[in-house]
Design brief:
- This protein has helices spanning 10-15, 33-43, 58-67, 79-114, 136-141, 145-150, 164-175, 219-263, 267-292, 304-313, 334-352, 401-411, and strands at 22-24, 49-53, 71-74, 119-124, 130-133, 180-187, 191-202, 208-217, 300-303, 321-325, 329-332, 357-362, 368-373, 415-420, 426-431, 435-436.
- The longest helix has 45 residues, at 219-263.
- The chain has four domains: 7-111, 3-Layer(aba) Sandwich (Rossmann fold); 119-217, PAS domain (Beta-Lactamase, 2-Layer Sandwich), CATH 3.30.450; 226-292, Orthogonal Bundle (Helix Hairpins); 300-436, Histidine kinase-like ATPase, C-terminal domain (Heat Shock Protein 90).
- It is built from twelve helices and 16 strands.
- By secondary structure, the chain is of the alpha+beta class.
- The strands form four sheets. The chain has a five-stranded antiparallel sheet, sandwiched between helices.
- It starts with 9 loop residues before the first helix and ends with a strand.
- Helices cover 45% and strands 21% of the residues.
- Helix 9 packs parallel to helix 12.
- Residues 105-178 form the PAS domain.
- Residues 178-230 form the PAC domain.
- It is an enzyme of class 2 (transferase).
- InterPro entries: CheY-like_superfamily, HATPase_C_sf, HATPase_dom, His_kinase_dom, HisK_dim/P_dom, HisK_dim/P_sf, PAC, PAS.
- Residues 241-436 form the Histidine kinase domain.
């Protein structure tokens, strides 16, 4: 609280910005209370100003009220007048502070709305009146805020003719009280895809009184979806060619090989058999490689321990040994992740020897898991190539195993890296899986 006996200093004090309310007498030597009021309102037009004076003239009271004085209290010797003054001060100060908070909040909401990439809107329940929309509508829909307020139905004008009915049906469902999400095309300078979300707002009776929502540009996302769909279609065509057009002549060759074996016994036929087996392996792994690079869209909780053991039982273990410490669940595509572990385990035996020791465990920082072995480490100058399709250091290998692993890992949105293991062999680390609480 600040006080002064110099009425001319009041306005300057108020301009400092730390005053919530001014209480002034009316009759003072240098200035009247109304003069002080006029000076104060020049620097702060909204500040509460109360006259607390001995002068009880109706003329002065009328003049004060006409000038815009917040309140006028006549001094009196009775205690209640001071209680009344305190009450009025509290009321005006609380109101001023509440208005200041509301103004700041409104300004913050305005800044938020005007600095988002989304179009924010509020319509009446029947969509006939636009109550609010931010200026992003001009950039996205090519329509000004003023134009849309003047004609709320104009927001349908840029919508692609083939999508108008779907959008109207969505609007009707929102008006009926159902939350909605819809994708549609708009035509402004070029064709764009947008996505709108609409949320009905209801009153205490449950009736929809308005609809609020937002719209954002999803053109890039739709383009990626179309590109991914085209890529997957190409992969499926490729897989079909590999599966049918290559396997059919391979089956014919197998048949004639069996006939040849019945007619003659030759080491050359065994060479042919091994070549045909290798071709079958190549075809199988090409099919996996083509299909496993597709994005993972459906995941479920998977027990890492059980999946590793299941994968181990699906391969020729020879004399290799497996140790696991992975008692956790993660979100994954179980079949495709099983393919990862099968390839890891086969690769370890293929390159580390049939008596190799393989360890599967969790990373110390709990960001993922590792698979390591005690075989020969990968040469430093080869580590950058090992995930390339067809690369192998084993003449009997196809070079597809690690490429398949990388594709499946990336399809899950995870990352894979290679380093030397603690036992002198190779260690693969996969980071990014989501671990589930058990």
């Amino acid at each position: 609280m600040q006080s002064t006996t110099d009425p001319e200093a009041v306005a300057e004090t108020v301009s400092g910005g730390a005053i919530d309310c001014v209480i002034s007498d009316y009759q003072m030597p240098e200035m009247s209370g109304l003069d002080v009021f006029a000076a104060v309102r020049n620097v702060d037009p909204e500040i509460p100003f109360i006259l607390f004076t001995d002068t009880g003239s109706e003329t002065i009271a009328s003049e004060a009220i006409s000038a815009g004085i917040s309140d006028y209290v006549i001094k009196n010797t009775i205690k209640e007048q001071y209680t009344l003054l305190a009450t009025k001060i509290t009321t005006y100060v609380d109101r001023r502070r509440a208005e200041a908070v509301a103004a700041r909040t409104q300004q913050q909401l305005h800044e938020l709305a005007e600095n988002t990439n989304d179009v924010l809107f509020i319509f009446s329940a029947d969509w006939n009146e636009l109550e609010y929309i931010n200026s992003r509508c001009t950039e996205l829909f090519g329509q000004s805020v003023a134009a849309l307020h003047k004609n709320s139905a104009a927001f349908l004008e840029p919508v692609h003719p083939d999508d108008v009915d779907d959008l109207k049906n969505t609007m009707q469902k929102a008006s009926e009280g159902n939350s909605q999400q819809v994708e549609y095309r708009i035509q402004v300078d070029s064709e764009k895809w947008v996505e709108s979300h609409a949320q009905p707002i209801v009153d205490e009776t449950g009736s929809v009184v308005r609809v609020a929502g937002f719209t954002h540009d999803i053109t890039e996302r739709k383009q990626r979806e179309l590109e991914l769909r085209a890529k997957n279609e190409r992969l499926e065509r490729f897989a079909s060619i590999v599966s049918h057009d290559l396997r059919n002549p391979l089956s014919v060759a197998d048949g004639y090989l069996e006939l040849a074996r019945k007619e003659a016994d030759s080491d050359h036929l065994e060479t042919v058999a091994r070549a045909l087996d290798r071709m079958e392996t190549l075809i199988s792994e090409l099919l996996v490689l083509a299909r496993e690079g597709q994005e993972v869209t459906e995941t479920k909780p998977v027990s890492l321990d059980k999946l590793v053991l299941s994968s181990w039982n699906n391969i020729d273990q020879q004399n290799a040994t497996l140790h696991t410490e992975t008692n956790v669940e993660i979100l994954a595509d179980e079949i495709r992740l099983g393919q990862v572990f099968e390839n890891f385990l086969r690769n370890a035996i293929e390159h580390g020897g049939d008596a190799v020791n393989i360890n599967v465990g969790l990373l110390d920082d709990e960001t993922g898991f590792y698979v390591e072995n005690d075989g020969d480490p990968i040469p430093e100058n080869k580590k950058g190539q090992i995930f390339e399709t067809g690369f192998t250091t084993n003449t009997q290998g196809t070079g597809f195993g690690l490429a398949i692993i990388k594709r499946i890992v990336n399809a899950h949105g995870w990352s894979i890296s290679v380093t030397d293991s603690h036992h002198g062999g190779t260690r693969f680390e996969i980071t990014g899986p989501e671990f589930l609480d058990q």
